[in-house]
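Hi support team,

I submitted a single chain yesterday and got back a structure, but I'm not sure I'm reading the token output correctly. Could someone confirm the output below corresponds to the sequence I sent? I've pasted both exactly as they appear in my results page.

Thanks,
R.
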Amino acid sequence: MDTRTDRLGYVMGRVGPAVQLRPVVCGRAWEAAPADVRPATDEERLAAIR
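Hi R., thanks for writing in. Yes, this is the structure output for that exact sequence:
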């Protein structure tokens, strides 16, 4: 979960100091600061696929 943008994504890796995330559903990948990324809750995961 990217807490800065409030978006849920899969961690794909790191690029320099940033974490690369891919959306659960279609969309473009994005980068986030490691401090802004945390594991998603069960509720957030369910909401993302609805």
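A quick pointer for reading it: The CA atoms of residues 22 and 29 lie 4 Å apart. Let us know if anything else looks off.

Best,
Support desk
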